[in-house]
Amino acid sequence: MTCLAATAAAAALLAGNAHAEDLLIKIGTVNATSGGAAHLGKDNENGARLAVEELNARGLSIGGKKAKFELLAEDDAGDPKQGTTAAQKFADEKVNGVIGHLNSGTSIPASRIYANAGIPQIAASVTNPKYTRQGFKTTFRVVADDVHLGATLGKYAVQTLHAKSIVVIDDRTAYGQGVADEFDKGVKAAGGKVVKREFTNDKATDLMGILTSAKAAKPDVIFYGGMDAVGGPLARQMKQLGIQAKLMGGDGLCTSEMPKLAAGALGDGQLICAEAGGIDPNDKAAVKGMEDFKARFKKRFGTDVQLYSPYTYDATMVMAQAMVKANSADPAKYLPVLAKTSGYKGVTGAISFDDKGDILNGALTLSTFKAGQKTTIGVVR
């Protein structure tokens, strides 16, 4: 063997050994990347993907080894059975942590599987209160829940919109029914009245029957608990029936796709929605941080942020920070550190967890749409 060849062989061996010394950290993410919420699912997945890519670019060291993060993505189509199948797959693969799922209805049953496997799970778009109230030590979220969201919207409907007649419709999913129930409670707590309660499903396109019934109640406000895939047709059919009521909803209607799905049926200021999270517009540093994130996101994926990708990004970064602080990617070792997260400065704001795994002092953003563009009404905590 020539000297040059020997040198090359030695270099290859060293490179191979160095690669073998890398610490592979598997981060799982599950989202509905097919079906009516696919645009939101892909948005969530891409937020986590951007975080993983940026973590790898930093060249972090954990336990004396170079950390190499790998994102494993699964689609649960918003179906609880597919969600638990994906969760079991990740448990069998012994992933180091999970970001997700997108929906409350899939995250709640999946959380038991992760808990039994000892795998930390951080949700970035799950708002049903039950998610963190099951007693699992592995369950966290970086957004406010529906108790806060529903109560705020209910109060707004009664005290700001002065609605006398309110109709509530939900899609019977864990998310949709949950946020509708909390809105109902918020209305009553503010001294208002829900005159009619209706329900549909998360794949409905014909809502004429429900809306005809609702119209008879002469509503000032119609609240829809569900996602934009049904919220859009609901808005169109409200217009067709001549219903002048304000349309209200949770984060499922607060998406950039909502005006498109409504096909021009939303008048300026007609839709009022709330999403968990938000940046104080008066905090210039926070606003710039979010703008920078959105620019990086668009450059990487060629599309705008839909809704919760900044939160999946932060969730991934919070998980990685806990691993670095614990000097281990072993869930049993970094989980106690993750639970004590306090004051982490993310692109979505400060992140600290309470004893249930909920974010402390979570923000809530009230928005409307004008000329098809989402406009912030205010950020409350």
TrEMBL record:
GO terms for biological process: amino acid transport. Keywords: Amino-acid transport, Signal, Transport. Residues 25-370 form the Leucine-binding protein domain. Residues 1-20 form the signal peptide. SUPFAM superfamilies: Periplasmic binding protein-like I. Belongs to the leucine-binding protein family. This is Branched-chain amino acid ABC transporter substrate-binding protein.
